TrEMBL record:
Spans traversing the lipid bilayer: 273-292
Chain ranges of the Glycosyltransferase 2-like domain: 8-175
UniProtKB keywords: Membrane, Transferase, Transmembrane, Transmembrane helix
An example molecular function term from Gene Ontology annotations: hexosyltransferase activity
InterPro entries, per database record: Glyco_trans_2-like (IPR001173), Nucleotide-diphossugar_trans (IPR029044)
Domain of life: Bacteria
Signal sequence, renumbered to the chain: none
SUPFAM superfamilies, per the entry: Nucleotide-diphospho-sugar transferases (SSF53448)
Species the sequence originates in: Ruminococcus flavefaciens
Descriptive protein name: Glycosyl transferase family 2
């Protein structure tokens, strides 16, 4: 019988920087008060790092892991889905090389928060840092009270209409829900795996927010933050694919869904100014939230600790010597 875990931590890699990868893995194996497995899913990297990864886990005395390797690059959605299918945890945590847990109890605290509140998915704050180790002052999303208190209509306005969203690394989700929504994306969306949370919020799943950072999020080099024109176009294509999936699933006759169908028919991720006008026209009640989003920036990471990140960096550097 396969061993069961509280959480399956799925690590997506593709031509990843070795130091960033081993920092990420170091932050995982230091998690306490929770049972978990680590699934490293390599999406067709040029260099196979499987032996180095095995050596790292052996050196750290960690045995609950799997390494999956694809012969070709299929995109982030298929990569995470493949990892989740092979998982044995009650919850799924997706993370990429360079992203680290914020402390040794981050995973256990987030899981227990979900258990206490009977949530399907939950996100937290993330401490953004760049290649120099400097934090970003602003965090996302800006409006979090609606998620903490689970005001369903306002959750939809903020996450779906304002696109006031959390980074994917800050989420924890029930395995069965993760698989259900990721399978909807398979062969339709390539890279925007965290857009499944848009569908979950649209479907009024139990989505919550915990007001504590759980992740160091490496900012500036990844697909969504590197500001590379080629990748920007690919991500916009994914955005439009996600909207099409939502449009096909949006069949209800509620006050929100009737207008949301109209909104999705005319929304185009490539036309930013037109989209803003469209939002205000179809959902005029979103204007106060939009003003709040733009004027009251949350700044709760100025005093963030980097002690755990540095501990994991030292462990990774020591292994690579």
């Amino acid at each position: 019988m396969a061993k069961k875990f509280d959480v399956s931590v799925c690590v997506a890699i593709y031509n990843s920087d070795p130091l960033q990868l081993f920092m990420t893995l170091a932050s995982m194996i230091r998690q306490k008060q929770v049972s978990f497995e680590v699934i490293v899913a390599d999406d067709g990297s040029v260099s196979d790092m499987s032996e180095q990864i095995r050596a790292f886990f052996k050196a750290e005395g960690f045995e609950d892991y799997k390494i999956l390797r694809s012969e070709k690059n299929n995109g982030t959605v298929i990569n995470y889905l493949r990892a989740a299918v092979s998982s044995s945890g009650k919850y799924i945590k997706c993370i990429s090389a360079g992203d680290l847990f914020y402390s040794e109890t981050s995973l256990s605290e987030l899981m227990r928060y979900m258990e206490r509140n009977s949530l399907d998915a939950c996100f937290t704050d993330a401490v953004y840092y760049n290649s120099r180790g400097l934090p970003e002052v602003s965090v996302d999303p800006q409006i979090v009270g609606v998620h903490r208190k689970r005001y369903l209509y306002l959750q939809k306005l903020c996450y779906l209409i304002l696109s006031d969203r959390a980074c994917g690394a800050a989420w924890l989700v029930r395995r069965e829900e993760f698989l259900r929504y990721m399978r909807l994306f398979a062969n339709k969306v390539r890279f925007c795996e965290d857009s499944i949370y848009c569908l979950m919020i649209m479907d009024e799943k139990r989505v919550g927010f915990r007001y504590e950072p759980s992740i160091y999020y490496h900012y500036g080099d990844g697909l969504s933050t590197a500001k590379n024109e080629t990748w920007t176009l690919k991500l916009r294509e994914d955005d439009n694919a996600v909207n099409l999936i939502q449009l096909r699933r949006c069949r209800g006759n509620s006050f929100f869904e009737k207008r949301y169908r109209f909104f999705l028919r005319f929304f185009d991720a490539r036309k930013r100014l037109i989209n803003i006008v469209l939002k205000m026209f179809v959902f005029p009640e979103v204007l106060p939230l939009w003003i709040l989003q733009k004027t009251r920036r949350r700044k709760n990471v100025k005093s963030a600790s980097f002690a755990f990140l540095e501990e994991c960096r030292s462990a990774a550097e020591k292994f690579m010597l």
